[in-house]
Amino acid sequence: MSTPTPRPLDEVAIRASFARYRFASFAEGIALLVLVSIMVMRYGVYHGEGLFTSTSHTWETISQTWSPIHGVIYMVYVVLSFDLWMRMRWSLPRMLLLMLFGVVPVLSFFGERWTHQKMESDLRQRPTLQDEEHPRR
């Protein structure tokens, strides 16, 4: 009995999906850094009563405005990560790792590079629909 041949990946669709993921990864990284900066200003620098009371209210307003925006950006990041994960047919732990990249400040930038390397490695090793059109070297 022979081992079943894995279904080939669609390299063109994967590369398009990765381009969307890359954009979302950078957007999420920047949005998360902005959110962390706002939280530092709100709770660290201008927290409490006294001299900075009006400034504290300003940072509270900024925080209440930016937090939902960041939430939407993260949800878009999650959807695009899921799309790439499905197209690459990666394992569940890889999906969880992609989600984690968007939660820790600055990690999305490094996670994007790591994901790109893994994707390229997998595309070299696994069969794709485009192999018949352009044989690998």
Automatic annotation (TrEMBL):
Keyword flag Transmembrane helix: yes
Record's keyword annotation contains Ribosomal protein: no
Keyword field: Cell membrane, Membrane, Transmembrane, Transmembrane helix
Transmembrane segments: 21-45, 65-85, 92-111
Topology class, membrane: Multi-pass membrane protein
Primary localization: membrane
A single Gene Ontology CC term: plasma membrane
Residues covered by the DUF3817 domain: 19-116
Domain of life: Bacteria
Compartment list: Cell membrane
Protein name as catalogued: DUF3817 domain-containing protein
